[in-house]
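Reader question, answered in our methods column.
A reader sent in the components of a multi-part assembly and asked whether the whole thing could be modeled at once rather than chain by chain. We filled in our standard form and ran it. Here is what they sent:
COMPLEX SIZE: two components
ENTRIES:
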Amino acid sequence: MPDRDSESALPLTPATFHILLALVDEERHGYAIMQEVAERTDGSVNLGPGTLYGSLKRMLDQGLVEESDERADPALDDERRRYYRITRFGLAVARAEARRLEALVRSARQKKLIGRATT
Amino acid sequence: MTARPAERAYALLLRAYPPQFRAAYEREMTLCFRDLVRDAGAPGMGFWMMIVADVARSAPALRFDALRARRSSNVRPKEGQMKPMGILAVLIGVTQIVNATIELIAGGAALATFPRFTVLLAIAVALLLVAAGMALVRRSPRAPSLATLVAVAWLVLVVITRAVHPWMSIFTLMLAVVFPVALLVFVWVGRGRGRASTV
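And here is the structure of the entire assembly that came back:
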């Protein structure tokens, strides 16, 4: 997918970006996405089921994610759950959003709103 | 609150979401909720406030999305019927333009101000009708609203013309009223069909 298309999907809502980040390394079902986001943000971002599935619906419509299959998660129970994975377009959009946020942070640093990142 | 009554309460909250969304995601959301309840242990006031806030935040936006989707699908009557209706509208529009122009030329300077105004109005409505017909042929999303505008303008024109030419025959009057009414029915039946198909 060309860069122009991925740029046109920006800016992403925080929920959409968090969901894309959760799906970058592996496909997950809804609750696993919620857990990953909560763990990665030390509990500061907690997606509720409505926000999660509302965002997933829009992301499916936009082609950012796709459904992979339905299967049970042995770590939870025997219920079959719908798994979601990031698409190539979704990956391009996530990269473009990360670059956009990076540029914003760079501007904030130049204005001395925040200090230099520690390595 | 134990898991089952909590799920029943959550099922009530889920009614805030649009039916299409519930049909697609209710089961998944209930599973998520069940997992949340299990991990929360004994869900207290804080848990329920989080759940209610989540529903209050997401349901109106999804309702709005569903309404917008329904509106955009409503403005598309059946494709197979749009083209013939569009062609008919263009033909009637062109005929009316020719007819009104001849009337304008034939009347010349002798044509009084008010009749001249009605003839010019007839040309304007006919031009709009041609535009609406072409939009219907092209299946433009704006076609139904344009067709509605033309049909209403046409009916107003018939009333004005009737005032100028009170001797207008019942047959001509019927003919002048039938097409705009048919156009309105076509557009509104199309809307109704779109509404039914999205639920």
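What stands out: The longest helix of chain B spans residues 45-74. Chain B is about 85% helix and 0% strand.
Send us your own complexes using the same form.
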